[in-house]
Amino acid sequence: MSILILIIFLFYTIPTMEKQRSIAVIDLKAFYSYVECVDRGLDPWKTPLVVADKERGKNTIVLSVSPYLKQRGVPSRLRINDLPKKYDYIYAVPRMERYIEKSAEVVKIMMEFVSEEDIHVYSIDEAFVDLTTYLNYYKKTPLQMVKMIIDTIKEKTGLQATGGIGDNFFLAKVALDIYAKHERNGIATLRKDDVPTKLWPITPLSKIWGIGARTEAHLNKLGIYNMEQLAHSNREFMRSEFGIIGEQLVDQANGIDESDIREEYVPKEKSLSQAQVLFKDFNKEDAKTIIREMCDDLSSRMRNENKICGVVSLYIGYSKNQGGFARQMSLLQETDDSETLFNALMEIYMTHVKDLPIRNIGINFAKLKNNDFSQLNIFEKPEKQIQRHDLQKTMDRLQDKYGKNILLRASALTENSTIIERHNQIGGHRK
Q1: Which of 36, 363, 406, 420 could form a disulfide with 92, with the two C-beta atoms 3.0–4.6 Å apart?
Q2: How confident is the model at residue 8 (pLDDT cuts 50, 70, 90)?
Q3: pLDDT mean over 96-107
Q4: So what's the pLDDT on residue 377?
């Protein structure tokens, strides 16, 4: 009888028992500068190296500084002009192709330990790994397994990584961002049981992954200054203030995050965008050249994906923190025609632009859908539209085959053009 009771007990309890998840996030320390030091045979902890292109001028943004400089209080993001004058800096021009190559090497190393489907690459220097089903196989604790991965990365690439471990994405990221830097081995753990002692006291709120300056300011106006206060906030009230994100903030403050690393995120509505920080201040007239070039590039990309768009957006940022604007316009009919899209962007631009120096430009094509058939504009001769569309498609094919710079507008040869240089870059930096 006792055996029967035991069997019944196990039958009803085992399926409901949930294995504690172990999510790790692994971050490559000072990634760009570390790569540059390793490639030069230099010790990143003894070398004052900065990753920045001096040829772009003193206002150029520094992408990364070596651990040697970070230990001495130099921030990882600043302009060349703001670097302390007391160090004899080694400048490394950004090499994005090299960084992508090294990042791929690291992901490949992770795949030696876990399946690809249990890795979520978050950025070029950071990835989440679900360790849950591998701990028994390796007969290791989460801490031991993360250390094993990090040590292998160091051995095979020379790069240094740090890690955060938690019951979910959010707790692992907080462990990495807040606590890993204080651990000798560079690995920190944050479990749900640790929430009251390790998560709730964190302040200011902008230290937390996903809470930016504007969200923090809004929360502060509501009298919320730390994670404990956020954890005890009313969910319905937070939803009324922030939308669905408000409920997510309350959940996270309580250590709850139901994200699944194996879930594929498919956006409900796709859009295409492009943005650039200009190498100098542009006046109102000269900036039109940049908008034209960006429109040509994004239109070509849209045609290559066989899409048409129904909404265009334009962002302009003025120099020296003088503000800017972001506006959008719905088109009368969806299109992939460069001229139509440029004219719409110009209508937004001329309506809202001020006579101030311009330093940032961004465009976006939204409400995309498949270009299943061509609908001609009734206000323009059909043969003219067909001729222009055929010309644009021919240009697309030539650029795809021979390179983006094989066929450009004459304006590409003017001093204000950035298109030739941008086509030789990855992520806004040299390849």
Answers
A1: 36
A2: very low
A3: 93
A4: 60
